[in-house]
Each structure stands twice: as structure tokens, then as C-alpha cells.
Design goal:
525 residues, alpha/beta, Bovine Mitochondrial F1-ATPase, ATP Synthase Beta Chain, Chain D, domain3, 8-stranded mixed β-sheet
Amino acid sequence: MDAQPTNPSTRAPARLASPNEAAGGIAQDSAPALGQRPRDLRRGIPSDSEGRVEQEVPWVLPVGLHNGSGRVVSVQGPVVDVKFTASQDVPNVYDVIKTRTADGRGLTVEVAEHLPGNIARCIALSSTLGLQRSAPAMPMRGGLQVPVGPQMYGRIVNVLGEPIDRKGALEVTETRPIRRPPLGGKINPPRSNETPELLETGIKVIDLLFPLVKGSKNGILGGAALGKSVLTLELIHNIVKEHYGACVFTGAGERIREGNELYHALTEHQVLDKVMLVYGQMNEPPGARFGVAFTGVTLAESIQRENKDVLLFVDNVFRFLQAGAEISTLLGRVPSETGYQPTLASEASEFHERIRSAQEGGGSITSLEAVYVPADDLTDPAVVALYGFLESIMVLSRERVQLGLYPAVDPLLSSSSNLDPDIVGEHHFEIAQQVIRALQKYEELRRIVAVIGLEELSQADRTIYARARKLQNFLTQPFFVAEGYTGKPGEYVTVREAVNGCERILSGRMDAVPEEKFYMIGVVP
């Protein structure tokens, strides 16, 4: 039978197939034909006229992709959903997946959780600007690996271990995963044949009242503009330059300006070649600000593995936990009663339990962590979550900043488990206790003097009051890294000089010297 002629006026208009359709894939956001049900663009799932999803359309692997690859099906800020053809192709949690944006920029995402339909929900480690739906995604079948080794000294890298200092590419000889399974066993087991080794900082108030011990964790707590970053930089300068140690600085969620100033300050003071810098600043997505802490501790572990002692500086641990809260909210998890992520304690412990000394010889990791205290509230849940991990807690006081007492460490709010006669010696311990008692008595007398005046105090109380004010001034110190602000050259004070100075003030041998002479000096004149 002859075919019936077709009326051209009734023929459907021709439509060119997109490259995806020609390859057997799903058309990218194509408009439905007349009478065809709309398609849910987020998942490629047909829905009825009211938007209800009916059933899932089988997802076809586009031509040109290797087996096991996936496609981006959703991008919501730093959250990226990647769909795979089969359940066995879905990567494990914390595995990385690599894709590209429309302009060809590489993008690395980390799997955070699994969703029904062979979908891996991921957190981006850099900006997702320009990432398109249906972009091919290649799982790396493993966690994030960063380069380690001596070539990292003097360089700035990001959370991925990529250089961002415009000094050229790194010569990668060895890489290490930034995430590790729980180590198990005892944390810092006691060693009967080894005594704790003090780490002199050259800062009077720290060496006297809150001594650092190799392998310990120490926190510098304070609100905004109290000098956490300056104190951290001075510690880097003194310890690295005086003791020729190795150092890893991790900038987690702080300002780019501070990171830039740190880099130039280290260059100026000629200690950059002993420092590894890892930055995930506050312009980065939360995945980078959270992961950069693990990148930093991985670099520190690589130095420790060479039987070396390493200092790990983290500025700021609060921003690390805050990034974890952002990720938790983006993933739709129900927050805890206090508003933070329900995994707050486990995230803090996952980081801190990797800061430990080698169990059999080897080196140690000593951490100095700046902790931002929101609204000067020391009972904030994120700050409280860190107390249990820190052996020394140095609290910066806004009142001392207003009085011009720098560094603004409050001796009465701070504490240290390392201030022990078995660690620092009987003489040092006794002088430190006398200083704390004198400052406590001064706080009591200060309120009385504000009401009735100094003349109404007894002679004994007036003597204690005057000596405590001299002690308060003596514990101030000009910093090397702040010479441009104070106009005074920096001073490095040994532990012996600090203890002897306090002893001379407490014994009354300096009663004839005015208290102004003790302000911003090094040793007692």
C-alpha cells in the first residue's frame, strides 16, 4: 500500500538535539513539548501539573565518561549533589570528587553524606561559581591528599595543598591523607624515664604563670581586638628564632589582611624559611575553613614523623568549629539546643586527638590555638567544648586592653596544669603563687579604693596594693612584631629573669621605684 502523503502544515516543527540527547543522556533543562508533563529539573524526574514527583527516570551514563563517573544534579551554594548510575559507584564519605566549572576551573568536593537514588551530597572546598548542572564528576576513590616534605617550608598552601603564594608549583615527592581513622590507644601515655621539657617563649607572663611544655595543647582565648593574632605572631617569632624549631601556621577563617601581614612579618624577621603556612581564610566556603585545620595538623605530623619537635599554631579554632556549624546547617541537620551542630564535641576531639607526642621516642606536636570568644562570653558552647582539650588557658581581658596592659592576659581568669613544682621547680612555683595571691588581693583592694580612697587602707594593705600595681606593670612587655605600633624595641626575657624580677618586687627591694618605671620593660632595672 502506498504511504499516505503528510500535510506539511500539521507536521511538528523540527528541533535540533542537544549534545547530551544525541549521546543518549538527559537534555539540559529543555522545555517540555505541548501536552507533556513538566520535568523536575533538580533530579530529572517527571512530575504532574502540581509539581508532585511521580517516578524516577533511569539515569543514563553519557557517552565519553568512564565507568563509575557521575553527573552534578544540584548545586546549592557550597552543597553539590552528584548522581551515579549504580550504588557501588557511590564514593565513601570523606572521599573526594573532582569536576570542572563552565570556564574550565577545577573544583574538588568532599562527600559528606549519601542520599537515596545513588546520590552523594558533597561539600565544595572552593567556590562553586560557574558549576553547571550535568557537569561530569570523577570520584578519586580516596580522601584528600596533600603534599608533605621540606619543600613546604616558606610556602603558603590552601586546604588542597595547592600553592597560593605565586611562587610557582610545588615539587611533590610525597602526599598524605588529611583525614585518618581514630588512632586508638592512650593519648600521651606517661613515660617514667622522661621529664616534661619546658619551652621558653621569652614572654614574661606566659613563662611565669602559664609555662609551655613540649607536646601540650595551649589556648589563647579572647574577644575581638584583644591581641590574639599579635600574641600568636610574637610566639612564632620568639620560639622559632630563638630555638630554631619547625612551625606550621594554620589560618582558619580569619581575615586575608591578617594572613598577608603575617607573611610579610615572618619575611621581615627572617623566620619564613622555618614556617609552613596553610590558609583557609574567611572568604573561602565553609568546607575549606573546616578542612584547613586537618591539612595543618597533617603537615605537623609529617614533621613529627622525622623525629622533630614542631609547633602548630591555629588561628582561629573557633572559626573551624563555626565552619562545622555552617556545614551542619547546609546539610539540613537539626542543631543542638544551643544552636551549634550536634557533632560539636566529636569535631573538636577529632582535631585535638591528633595533636600528640609520638609514643615511642620521636618528636612532639605543641599546639598554640587562638580561640575567638563571641561577645566576650566564656560560657559559649563552642568555647566550652575546647576547655577539656587545653592544658593551658590564657584569657585575654578587655579591661586590661583599656588600661594599656599588653599582652592583655588576665592571670586570675587563666589557668595552666603545667604550673607544677615537678615541672617548673619549687622556687618558680612558689613565686608564681605569690604573684597570683598579690593580684587577687589587689582586685579586692581596688574596689575598696574606688569607694573610700587609698588613704583609708592600712599600711600593710597599701604596701600590697603598691607592689601589685608594679607587678601588673612588670608583666607587660614590648613585642618584636609590634615595634611599628609601640615605637619600642622588642624584649626577650628568660624565665630566670622573669622569676627574679617578680621576686625582687614581692620582697620589697623595689618599693622605692615608681610603678611607671615597670611599664613596658624587659628585665627589672
